[in-house]
Specification:
Number of strands: 0
Radius of gyration: 19 Å
Order of helices and strands: HHHHHHHHHHHHH
Number of domains: 1
Strand content: under 5%
Helix content: over 70%
């Protein structure tokens, strides 16, 4: 029997105001991660070439995020969220693409490019997820409107890379790795459609974060990476980034549980907007974001809207969303 508190929460999530407010919280959290990671690099004195320490930083973040998600989920359900034997293969597969590969490229790429630029490029996950779901997993219909949305969105990503920001040229380990991060995110979203229909989304997210974080942490440490000196400021940034992952992924999964995919996914167009604004404000990158950057951002958002507003864009199995990082 569900608790009264749980019933009130589910009723709020089902409302239009609940959907809008919670989805925007997720976008703000994800958007702040670009600036958070780059701030963490500075506070922990992690250099762009020190990919080993970047993996340690990422691993500790996601390990803590998984613990946070599992503790919160267990408290809400009033029972320990322990995976069944049948859930373990799903956790491992999701972990590989959603945490290990996605954030391997994300953390290295973000060390070699600006937060503003990364926020625009990473929005390609919406389009790669839709193409993968349509052409490989066959859980989406590929329509002319969706293809047009992909073309518009990718044109924005091409624009920002051809012209650069502030005279910068595209960098393989920066812009290239951020794009590969978006591809990995697209694969993980498509996989989540097939693997999470009969599972608790918080349980899957929590355990795949714990496993993925442990793997990245261990790999980076074995290769010689370290987190550096832990201070009050650097520790606060690390905990905040862990909270971002734990809270945003859990909230987004709950929204997808109570609303059609198309209604939730349309809010994904705010991810690059929030990322650009927060990165420009926190990292002082606003001067580099000129007309080219604005046009690229508008093209990406227009493409995301076109893809997600298609009437036949809902997964037949009511799976998870196709566009987030």
């Amino acid at each position: 029997m569900k608790s009264q508190k749980g019933g009130k929460l589910s009723r709020f999530i089902k409302t239009g105001f609940g959907l809008c407010s919670l989805a925007m919280i997720c976008c703000l959290l994800w958007g702040s991660a670009f600036a958070g990671v780059k701030t963490g690099y500075r506070l922990f004195d992690i250099k762009p070439s020190d990919w080993q320490s970047q993996m340690v930083f990422a691993g500790i973040r996601f390990f803590i995020a998984g613990i946070m998600a599992l503790i919160t989920g267990s408290a809400a359900e009033r029972k320990l969220l322990l995976p069944a034997k049948s859930s373990l293969p799903k956790i491992c597969i999701i972990c590989l693409f959603q945490t290990v590969l996605q954030y391997f490229f994300y953390y290295i790429g973000l060390a070699h490019t600006t937060g503003v630029k990364a926020a625009v490029i990473v929005a390609a996950n919406v389009f790669t997820a839709m193409l993968i779901a349509s052409l490989i997993f066959r859980t989406e219909k590929l329509t002319a409107r969706k293809l047009a949305g992909c073309a518009i969105g990718f044109s924005g990503i091409i624009l920002i890379n051809l012209n650069g920001l502030g005279g910068q040229r595209p960098d393989l380990f920066g812009d290239g790795f951020i794009f590969l991060c978006a591809v990995s995110s697209g694969v993980s979203s498509a996989l989540m459609k097939k693997l999470s229909r009969d599972e608790d989304p918080v349980l899957l997210s929590g355990w795949q974060f714990v496993l993925g974080g442990a793997l990245m942490w261990g790999f980076g440490a074995v290769c010689g990476g370290s987190l550096g000196r832990l201070t009050l400021s650097s520790g606060a940034v690390l905990l905040y980034l862990a909270f971002v992952s734990a809270a945003a992924y859990s909230i987004w999964s709950l929204l997808l549980k109570y609303h059609p995919v198309s209604r939730v996914s349309v809010f994904g167009l705010m991810n690059p907007v929030c990322g650009v604004i927060i990165s420009a404000a926190v990292l002082g990158e606003g001067e580099d974001f000129g007309i080219t950057g604005i046009c690229a951002l508008l093209l990406v958002c227009a493409g995301i809207y076109a893809v997600n507003s298609a009437k036949d864009g809902v997964d037949r199995h009511k799976g998870n969303d196709v566009g987030k990082v």
